[in-house]
Amino acid sequence: MRPTDPEPTPLRDASAAVTRRALFGRAAAGAGAFALHGLLGQESAAAQDLAGGRVGSAGLHHPARAKRIIYLLQNGGPSHVDTFDHKPKLRELHGQQIPPSFVEGVRFSSMLDGQGEKPLLGNLPSFARYGECGATVSSFLPHTAGIVDRLCFVKSLHTTQVNHAPAITYFLTGSERPGRPSIGSWLSYGLGSMSEDLPTFVAMTSRDQDATCGQIFYDWYWGSGFLPSRHQGVKFRGLGDPVLYLRDPDGLPRDLRRGVLDDLAALNARRAEEVGDPEIESRIAQYELAYRMQTSVPELTDLSGEPESVLAMYGPDVRRKGSFAYNCLMARRLVERGTRYVQLLHAGWDQHRNWNTQLEVQCRDTDAPSAALVKDLAQRGLLEDTLVVWGGEFGRTPFCQGVLGAPNQGRDHHPYGFTYWLAGGGVRAGHTHGATDELGFNAAEDRVSVHDLQATLLHLLGIDHERFTYRFQGRRYRLTDVFGEVVPGMLA
């Protein structure tokens, strides 16, 4: 053996015994690699098929204001009347029964069954006005209060869903039933990737440290539905390796791994040509992405190069893997490396029986990281074309769940009027759109539905939501179903 020859291994010995059949197989690898290059091109899947008014060859229907989205979904439903939607009437009328006209015939969760009295519950924190825009923000959210002039508040959102899983599914997929593609999958399909080394769509989850919220993170929250599975979100774990099975087994050199993947790609490409199954193309693409992520993910998660001033901005929890603060920092690092859509789901806001103790804790855990993300993007020049979205699947009732004044009082789910905020990416900064009534019960002015919000997000990304479709089982589907209108008042 020459000094330059690689160290022999069982796999190398087997590959050295080249038979006639193997020789032709090796020759076919060249054709397979050529096919693979086409399959892994960075042009969007939708752009490769212009039929049916899909996104065009440039990936857009009109000029885009944003290139990417970070969605900070607050699982459980933050209380809008205790965070951003100040209602002095609630304190003035604290303890009085909510007028019957508000609640008669209105659907709430089953946890209110048997509760006859519905006394109004005053705001727990105090409120003040901040910034040049004068936005009202709870005293529990001082860091968010410091960035209000960068934010667009939408205080007139409403939804049709009153329970967690269907309500979250509705926001993320446009349908309350599982099975439709999530927003990130639609964007992967329509706009394609901006990075060869990281996923187009990444999902991360976290929960309150006291584990007071029992909400489950279902896989379909980042699923591709009926779209090819290559558009599914890649979930980064909070413990151990961010992505399972990225490491090569012991004793498998990287160059040998490359050879195995090339041979496998050739076989898969041949099979794809024979049967035309798009899932084979997805498999090829995911193998290749996983190979490149073996290098890119360790670099992504290495925080040694982050300035201490930046880490401090995200708060003391930023170094704890799986925390909301850590995930917010990872979101910034992902988008600056080319990930198009990052979805953070954080559970802890479902305060039926612990509102008077856990609301402040939950605000403290999420306030600094959310504000830091916006400031961090801005100082790096990324906020202008990155859209940050903050909000839950619904709000909380203005009246008390349980016995007023009891240690375990709370607020129930409330879909009829609640608040989101957005930043960057072409939204109208320092602006409040819409309003609820004087009790924070119903969206009363400039109402915004879930599909309206989705249509507006797509519009900011250069996509006409009515033309952006995918044909499945004989009909064309879209994220906004057959509803939704762009909200001009939210746009810069």
Structural class: alpha/beta
**H and E order:** HHEHHEEHEHHEEHHHHEHEEEEEEEEHEE
Oligomeric status of the shown chains?
Answer: single chain
Classify the beta-strand content into a percent band.
5-15%
Distance between the termini: 68 Å
Rounded to an integer, what's the Rg over CA atoms?
25 Å
Q: Tell me about the biggest sheet?
A: 9 strands, mixed
Full CATH superfamily name of the largest domain: Alkaline Phosphatase, subunit A
CATH architectural group of the largest domain: 3-Layer(aba) Sandwich
Instruction: Tally the helices.
Output: 13
CATH topology of the largest domain: Alkaline Phosphatase, subunit A
Give a brief outline of the structure.
By secondary structure, the protein is an alpha/beta fold. Helix content is about 35%, strand content about 15%. Strands 1, 4, 5, 6, 7, 8, 11, 12 and 15 form a nine-stranded mixed β-sheet that branches. Strands 2-3 form a two-stranded antiparallel ribbon.
